Amino acid sequence: MSLLKEFERRDLGEIGRDLHDFAASLYPICRSITGSGIRRTLAMIQDRIPLRIHEVPTGTPVFDWNVPKEWNIRDAYIKAPDGRRVVDFQQCNLHVMNYSIPVHATIPLNEIRPHLFTIPDHPDWIPYRTSYYKEDWGFCLSHNQLAELKDADYEVCIDSTLEDGQLTYGECYVAGRSSDEVLISCHACHPSLANDNLSGLAVATFLAEHLSGRDLHYSYRFLFIPGTIGAITWLAQNREASERIRHGLVLTCIGDAGGFHYKKSRRGNAEIDRAVGCVLRDCGESSEILNFSPYGYDERQYCSPGFNLPVGCLMRSVWGTFPEYHTSADNLDFIQPAQLARSLRLCASIFDVLEGNQSYLNQNPYCEPQLGRRNLYRSTGGDSISIEIHARFWVLNLSDGEHSLLDIAERSGMPFAAIHDAAELLRENGLLKGIVGVEKAP
Amino acid sequence: MSLLKEFERRDLGEIGRDLHDFAASLYPICRSITGSGIRRTLAMIQDRIPLRIHEVPTGTPVFDWNVPKEWNIRDAYIKAPDGRRVVDFQQCNLHVMNYSIPVHATIPLNEIRPHLFTIPDHPDWIPYRTSYYKEDWGFCLSHNQLAELKDADYEVCIDSTLEDGQLTYGECYVAGRSSDEVLISCHACHPSLANDNLSGLAVATFLAEHLSGRDLHYSYRFLFIPGTIGAITWLAQNREASERIRHGLVLTCIGDAGGFHYKKSRRGNAEIDRAVGCVLRDCGESSEILNFSPYGYDERQYCSPGFNLPVGCLMRSVWGTFPEYHTSADNLDFIQPAQLARSLRLCASIFDVLEGNQSYLNQNPYCEPQLGRRNLYRSTGGDSISIEIHARFWVLNLSDGEHSLLDIAERSGMPFAAIHDAAELLRENGLLKGIVGVEKAP
Amino acid sequence: MSLLKEFERRDLGEIGRDLHDFAASLYPICRSITGSGIRRTLAMIQDRIPLRIHEVPTGTPVFDWNVPKEWNIRDAYIKAPDGRRVVDFQQCNLHVMNYSIPVHATIPLNEIRPHLFTIPDHPDWIPYRTSYYKEDWGFCLSHNQLAELKDADYEVCIDSTLEDGQLTYGECYVAGRSSDEVLISCHACHPSLANDNLSGLAVATFLAEHLSGRDLHYSYRFLFIPGTIGAITWLAQNREASERIRHGLVLTCIGDAGGFHYKKSRRGNAEIDRAVGCVLRDCGESSEILNFSPYGYDERQYCSPGFNLPVGCLMRSVWGTFPEYHTSADNLDFIQPAQLARSLRLCASIFDVLEGNQSYLNQNPYCEPQLGRRNLYRSTGGDSISIEIHARFWVLNLSDGEHSLLDIAERSGMPFAAIHDAAELLRENGLLKGIVGVEKAP
After folding, report:
1. Chains with 3 or more CB pairs closer than 8 angstroms to C?
2. Beta-carbon neighbour count of residue C384 at 10 Å?
3. Terminus of chain C with fewer CB atoms < 10 Å: N or C?
């Protein structure tokens, strides 16, 4: 049975609440590209799905890069002369610039200012900043907070460590009948940001859970990795596995109220691009297909020219285009249970296309077969025919060995599920045969 | 001389009246996919053109089908207790469901109701229904008629026979210089329906008449056949002839007041598709090109994947999209002399393209030849040039052996006739040569 | 340094005034396709650039044509009975139909009328007429002038000669490192017409001046020729050189206030077509790309099927579409210094694309190289990246040996200059290598 159909028998509202609850449980953790935050995150994902955790030592060369030092943080604050913490990491982990080196000093506000980041246009919001590859320290705060600071000497403290250690990532492999793989990749390196991080993590975790134990054609590999350096590290250490990737999706920003956006792979017309296009066309939500560009999430690495993998990026609102992006306003209210659930279901529909897409041969290619005597047609002439019968005609007409079911769905304008169901029915009735050597069905 | 030009010398109004008169003479006959109705129809066509009549016995296997029993009907009615015929086949042959098995009984209205068909949205119209492949009986009547029937016992009588016999179809072959064929196919199995049947029969008959005795490149095969089973039967029994079909048109619903619609062949870019597209572009009537779909008229069979013939379907209003379709309102008022005549002329233009389309070689390919000294150019500079001279430049520029005249008409946006005339003139002046081996001209 | 960048360091206003002054100095000359007018024009161009003057004798066969007789004119007028010149060549050289044979007679107005040309819709303007290949004589005058002529005998005098002589054209060759050529062609045969002639002559002359002495990849050939017969003559006598033409532009009507129009070469997707398309897309002025058609300027000859050279035509307003075309209103007010200068700059941008377009190989094709440690990236995460950094990502991503910089500019939607600068920077940093054997850089 198709993944989508099984979804339709479950309570989507409940699935949405579960997804949101899971995101909420991950929300408080101060993640970064290395360190205990991502480790704890992966452990919580591991509670739900069989996750293999990998640790790669600092300094390991990965293509043009080296695995960076491991960063950990216990506390950080700016303390006013009266002893009050005016900026406090314990209240919000965005307050410290991610990867800040340790600092502890009492210095006048003027000297602190170059290390302070705010968003004047949204004076209540705290920005999210990082400095992974240039050693520096900084605090992020709301513009209102900054405005209240008077000239004085403040105690600044960042109780962090930046030392040789490990880069940590998680990998969940759901084996199918074929060793050909579908890659699902999401970054797990952002601290308390909900849409840009947790939405992807939650949906990917639930997808892996949903696929486990099923009879699948493809094997599915889920990566929970730090952005950029994680994808580079995985690719550097898994050249062989990367060659088995037939289709892939980067999942991110998939929980907000916006319509879907799909950024195509560098190839532009890969099967994953067409599959997502077909599913979005019929999904009933607003959606837009974007051309590939070499900036964004980890599709940057998967689609680098040496790999050129068929990996696209599925989003709702596009990163960088909504004001809440990379601010404290990307919080648990910004992602919604219903949207998370519908994103999950959409991914299932996409996998249905990948799993079900193959080519058949019409066994009666000369004229139409007589559907009526097989009870595959209406009996009284004069009325229009149903969508189901239309789909049968399309499948019969184009099953010449040169058209896949996805081709037929595209050309007919009919949902893939309708085309796939028609093909199954025709196959059961002996009117179609799968092309030998390429059958996906068990 | 071109077919179109000859048309332009005749009175289109008169041609339209002749077409309508011919349709009117066929209108009263109760046609079906077999039986005396189609036989009589073919005999009347035979009065105008040399038609070869074929009879294929019931039970003959044709691909996945068998030729059905032959159906004939003499009378049918529903008689009220007072002896009055409340539904009477003699008044309108649509009243009986086509292919109804014989029945004669007096039964309460309640038991008759499942066999009655009406159109509640158009309470004055009688629907057209068939049940070819499921043995059944029924009556079609206006919704108003039905409303007046009171609960009582009625005498229902269908005096029909459904017995072993023949499937009958007609074929008119107009020989050209080449054995390559143009197929024109229309169904002849609908009873008193004007646009959906008679318009195509009339236009095809007049086309065959118009082509007879001409010096033609292609041979033209006109089929007057029962829908679906007729096309299947012809294809099953004429595999060799089917391989000679280079272009084809199904003609139907070609007499109503709507603009033209052309449904492309399965190939989508066959020469016939491009020829019709070019002619419609310049025909001065509204028109729309539709993509192929595997449901419709007999293009379904010609375009089945085993044949995949370059056969499209030319219509005015598209079947199933106008309310009169398959009802008593598709009557002789619904088709119009002027539209029939313009449809006929359009077909002639299409044949002109097929007949005249070939490639030439510019004999002076280096720079333009000096048209002026051949009196093929205006003499005084400064003004714009005429369409005729424009067409000469286009033909000269693209006659490199890789562009046909149809290519040139498409690329230049100029009517095919203008391009063809220019090519003829240039050829007569020694500036072009037909490519050896592919010349269509006699 | 790019041609465009050097332009940006100069005063565009001053360049515009120089261009207009040069056009103004050429304006009074009565040019024709042969004779002293074009000779004097070429001599004035020769004052600025090294121009080789060619003279081809009358009667020389050039493909399907022969070089015509040489035409020269000293004076022409229509004199009223009172001795007043009512039409006077000395006031405006458009008054005489170009290539008029000599005539001197006193005849009644009625007999003169067939030789008089006016523009009733623009009663103040004098039309421009020619009769190169049909021996005839005529006068062009304003419709108002004609209206004032009373019936009487007038002395008509055209003091011209049409005798065996020469066809004259000029050629300026700017040698680059490669013998591959870029052709720039403009006609020099129109008398006092500014946009349709002088704008192209001025821009081409200044372009040749601008290119001289530079280190260039391509060699540039500038042709200043009589329209049609000049191009035919050059092609007939330079078959070998014509085979070295890799890209070409016909320049005409390039000084008026309209937006740019580029008519593509017959090939439709030649590199010159794409280069101009890319430059126009980003030029900040309105512009339109037109498909090739076989009528127009000398692209007609360069794009004849035997040559099929990649030569397009760059214009502002399209010849024949503006009312001033081929009238006395196409005067020095109709062309504007600013437009001439921007046309010149646009041509420089086009040459920049041709000169700079080549393919590179990303030396780190597996994942992105770490731009940060090479100071090619911003240092703090969280903000968007600059256009310059975007361009670097595009160049790295698509430099797989199958995409040229022009491909990348087209696909990215970024200006070619930004893409080219990024490629240079990446090459200097060792991240790109030019593909051996196709490098254009010195």
Report:
1. A, B
2. 9
3. C
**Residue A37: CB atoms within 10 Å:** 25
Identify the helix (H) or strand (E) that includes residue A319.
none
| Cα–Cα distance for residue pair B367/C66, rounded to 1 Å | 13
Report the relative pairing of strands B260-263 and B287-290 from DSSP bridges: parallel
Residues 6 or more apart in contact with residue B213 via CB below 8 angstroms: none
Q: Are A130 and C366 an interchain contact pair (Cβ–Cβ within 8 Å)?
A: no
* Cα(C286)–Cα(A96) distance, integer angstroms: 49
State residue B378's pLDDT score: 78
Mean pLDDT of B297-312: 98
H-helix segments, A228-370: 229-237, 239-242, 271-281, 299-302, 337-356
* B438 sits in which H/E element: none
For tokens 């030649």, name the residue. C270
By Cβ distance, the residue of C368, C382, C412 closest to A300 is C368
Q: Which of A62, A63, A185, A297 to mutate to test the interface with C (most CBs of C within 10 A)?
A: A63
Provide mean pLDDT across the span B122-148: 96
Parallel/antiparallel/unpaired status of strands A61-62 and A65-66: antiparallel
Rounded-to-integer distance, Cα C290 and Cα C381, Å: 45
Q: Is A304 in Cβ contact with C368 (below 8 Å)?
A: yes
Kindly indicate the confidence band of residue B6, based on its pLDDT and cuts at 50, 70 and 90. Answer: confident
Residue in chain A nearest C379 by alpha carbon: A134
pLDDT recorded at residue C380: 58
- Closest C-alpha among B257, B219, B188 to residue B39: B188
**Which pLDDT value is given to residue B143?**
97
Q: Which two tokens stand for residue B249?
A: 């048109």
φ/ψ of residue C279, rounded to 5: -70, -40
ipTM: 0.95
Mean pLDDT of C250-276: 98
Give the Cα separation of A325 and A341 in Å (integer).
21
| pLDDT beyond 70 at A409 | yes
Burial (CB < 10 A; 0-12, 13-18, 19+), residue B9, is: exposed
- Nearest-by-Cβ selection for C131 from B365, B369, B379: B379
- What does the angle CA B28 – CA B31 – CA B34 come to, to the nearest 5 degrees? 160
